[in-house]
What we know:
Chain A has 565 residues and is of the alpha+beta class. Chain A is 53% helix and 19% strand. Chain B is α/β, with parallel strands linked by helices and 148 residues long.
Amino acid sequence: MNQNRHNSIRRTILTCMILVPVVPFLLILVVGFYHFKVSLESRTVKNMQRIAMDHREIIDAFLEERVNDLEFIHASYTFDALRRHQTLQKVFSWLQLASNAYTDLGIFDAQGMHVAYRGPYPLTGKIYKDAPWFKEVIKHGVYISDVFLGFRQTPHFVVAVARDSDQGRWVLRATIDSQKFNTLVGGVQIGQTGEAYILNANGVLQTTRRSGGRPMEAPEDAIHLGHRQHAVDVAHQTFFSQGKYLYAVVPLKGGAWILFVRQDKADAFRALRVTIYATALICLLGGSLIVFAAVYLTNRIVNRMEKMDAEKAQLGQQLISASRLAELGEMAAGFAHEINNPLQIIKSEHALIEALLEDLKDDNGLMASPTLAELDESMGQVNLQISRCARITQAILKFGRQSEPTVETIDLRKYIPEVIQMVANKASVHGIAVVQDLVAETAHVKGDPAQLQQVLINLFNNAMDAILTRHGSSGGELRVAIQPAGNGAVEINVADNGCGIDTGNLPKVFSPFFTTKPVGEGTGLGLSVCYGIIDGMGGTMEVQSEQGSGTVFTIHLPVDTPNGG
Amino acid sequence: METMQLMLVDDEERFLSTTKKLLEREGYSVLTATDGSQALEMLRRKRVHVVILDVKMPGMDGNEILVQIKRQYPMTEVIMLTGHATVASAVDGLKSGASDYLMKPIDVHDLIAKAEEAFSRRQGLETKIRVARMRHLMKSPREIIQEN
């Protein structure tokens, strides 16, 4: 029952001691981690979005400049002027000054005939009437193509401008080197895997992708924006995460191209991963520290509590035994008192009978005879037995009163042999050798001699019982020793070579009502009362025993210091 | 010198009658009462020198009766009969004015000895009082007249 209570208290304390620090500890970790994660994510997103937006501006500006270049040329020169080789040469040189991305420049008439060309390839005279770019430029006036191979078999794209003039509609076209264009986005480097590249609406690369993919290839992992296409068009930029990558996406060229800024999540959130590991480590270490401290403290508290409970229980038991003893005393006293009254009457009657007998004798009513002598003798016996009864009742009344001890100075060297003498007869009858080992310089002690006698007689009787159990009527030895024990104490040892005490019973020998004797033979109060008496004298009493080889009772009593009163 | 008038108070009637017989055989005049009220009633009517009083009785307990007797008849000597072999209960009685105590079961000769002792103490005391009164009278008859 007590164990259950202790267990439940242990659980409660342990739970509290773990939960109370762990909850705020975890909250701090979780909140801190969450905010770090959010801020890291938002910083990563903003960074990628900023890069995307910046590069869109750069690319759009680049493309717009190219268109402006061509429009400027278209407006500045006539179709015929440009057909002239020198003029075209001059214009191309000027264009290359504006941007070294130009690889060639050509003009076309309305029928798609390549009228003049300045560049490394022999393209003059080719008809582009059915080329998609030509159709587009005729239709819209300005056209920037996707990257393609064309006749020359190297990736490039074209910027073309078609304007009406006096000579009719004609087209000015420049080719942009894909390599040069690449450098605009190829330089983007975020962390280890962050990169930027451009795809057209069909998912074909327009620039080289560092993580794999050359222009005009459609990478397998190219994502199709699908429903996000719309979001990209409307918002001009969007951010999302797909697969193992984070993407910031902006449309270019009015949605024909899409600029991707892409970074591996693991790379982007590397700091987060480090933080996760650190947090987990802190959790583990801090948690185990808390648990360890909680378990340690709980054990200490509960152990202390168990000890206190045990002491309380022992105290309670002592109180109970004391009160039972007192009850027993009360009962015996009442009993003796009740016996006293009839005894008193018997005594009076006896006195009267004796007086009447005397009268009869005096009046010569009774002759001296053997019968009369016997009657006299019998009357004497009655008187004797009455006195005996009276002694018994007085003794019971004395016991019941538990009268205050009469404290005297006791010289153990004289006193102990006297007490031993009381049991000497019993010892010799049972063949028990009584050995006295009384050190000469043993100091005196203070106490009630009658009480100390009760203690010693009790121990001697117990010892002799134990010896009888083991040895029968020969070979027993009872050793009584006194010696100084230091610290102002005297030690009395009562040792026997009897049967010993069972290890399980050893802690209980001083408990009231504990006895190993058959029912009715022992009250189990003897050692308990002894313990109480020694305790009352300010001493201690201990027992050591080994089953089958003997028992030693050790009493420590404080020395009576003459000036200590 | 007047003879000692004794009174026994105990709830055991047989004890009273037998002890009375024994005492009367020794030449003492003995009254008996089985409880406190009877004893007080008897004291009102008769002059008693020494009361032998059992401590433990049903109804009015010995110590209560002692207090009553000592209040109403301070010159009466009371010997307590106690069943307890203790000084404590006897001391209680002595404090309340008992002159001595006896432990049950008593021997009638012990009883007589104690009673005689108490009686002679009482006689001595009465003599002193008488002498004091006499002196008082001798000193100033006028004062006696005034007192009256």
